[in-house]
Amino acid sequence: MAERYWNEHIETMPREEMEKLQSERLVKQVKHVWDNVPYYRKKMEEKGVTPEDIHGIGDLSKLPFLSKADLRDAYPYGLLAKPLSDCVRIQSTSGTTGKRVVAFYTQNDVDMWEDCVARAITAAGGTRDDVVQVAYGYGLFTGGAGLHGGSHKVGCLTLPMSSGNTERQIQFMMDLGATILCCTPSYAAYIGETLHEMGYTPDDIKLKAGIFGAEPWTEEMRRQIEQSLGIKAYDIYGLTETSGPGVAFECSEQSGMHINEDNFIAEIIDPDTGETLPEGSKGELVFTSVTKEAFPLIRYRTRDICVLTREKCSCGRTLVKMTKPMGRSDDMLIIKGVNVFPSQIETVLIKDFKAAPNYQIIVDRVGTTDTFEIKVELSDDMFSDTIKDISTLEKKIGADIQQILGIKAKITLVEPKTIPRSEGKAVRVIDKRRLV
Ligand code: DLL
Fold first, then answer.
1. Is the CB of 93 under 6 A from ligand 1?
2. Cβ(119) – ligand 1 distance below 6 Å
3. To the nearest whole percent, how much of the chain has pLDDT over 90?
4. Whose CA is nearest to atom 30 of ligand 1?
5. What are the residue boundaries of the structural domains of the chain, listed by start?
6. Residue 180 has pLDDT above 70, yes or no
7. Confidence band (pLDDT; 50, 70, 90) for 329?
8. Which of 215, 302, 330 has most ligand 1 atoms within 8 Å of CB, for mutation?
9. How far apart are CA 232 and CA 210, in angstroms?
10. Confidence check: pLDDT of 255 > 90
11. Architecture of the domain spanning 333-431
12. Can you tell me which atom of ligand 1 is nearest the CA of 236?
């Protein structure tokens, strides 16, 4: 089948033309943030750069980086570049409290975002004749809203299922003839497993493709999902800060994701020095969103580690490709699709339970499901008038952790001095999932 594009002009634009477009948009965007966001102006002044110094993408590295810490600093309105009355939507990062990022959208921002997702759906073979089952979570998380909006834009019949209630998902999938499934890869695997447990085979459903992202997944997992659901599985990448899913998407070649670089200029930097690295180098992905109005990001450090390539793609798209993220340069874990920072766990253990900072977070994957255990060394300080025995203490810690993170962890209290000490940096996280 011939490759389909949502926006052929942009998706197959010659390199020089794209760079010209990016340059024009960058100049405009830098002026926009300078004029409207005091936080940005201050950062630029500190670096000794003004909008007059920016003539095009060649000047990108003159601009200061923006990090998650800046976003927290400026929470909630400090990076807003449009009056609130021009904004029509708020979305937020998945599952963390205290560390949430709140992103704002004007109607144009929503349109741009949905346009990016429409490109992804089209690249996965989607047309107005398709029935798209959106089983990403709806709500503040961008997964549900993003795929939903993109599906509408393409004109697909959209099934806004949200995640969960797996048997009902399968029932609807069969009754309504869903042809494209959108959810996290781990949920897709679970749906596949459940389908078989219910006694069905891929021949009983009409699915032909899946659009999966929001968390790391391996090629092995892709093959497993493709087999269990009888589909072709496409990767999709994005982050709340830059709008949500659709910053990059896979095409029929299934070897890396095309970045919608008319909207998001990508750079790779050395995470330690901040130096821009040449094409083909592995490093931290940095995005500048050149078309967003309400919440523009200039040189935002994603912390995702990957490689960019401009090798010719068999699909005909000229958009630069990123590899699957190979890890993160900070300590964020994604467990069961939820962003977890070890620091949040440490806060609960030390602040609320008076534990010594001797704990280990152990993440593994059994089949296609993440397991999450926290081992904590016992100390006498951890007991109180109301908490007198180990099992009550484990339950109480478990409940508090679940409240903070939104997901359950198995809490195991261990004997003092049994968790290895380190003379350098402590190893707090043992991630046994082989995701890269
Ligand atoms: O996960 C947006 C999204 C929704 C993407 C649905 C794709 C599909 P956040 O919750 O802000 O946004 O988390 C963003 O998730 O920095 C990556 O570390 C990770 N991530 C997102 N997509 C992928 C992917 C959404 N395809 C963080 N592969 C990002 C690996 C991914 N990691």
1. yes
2. no
3. 75
4. 216
5. 1-328, 333-431
6. yes
7. confident
8. 215
9. 6
10. yes
11. 2-Layer Sandwich (3.30)
12. 26
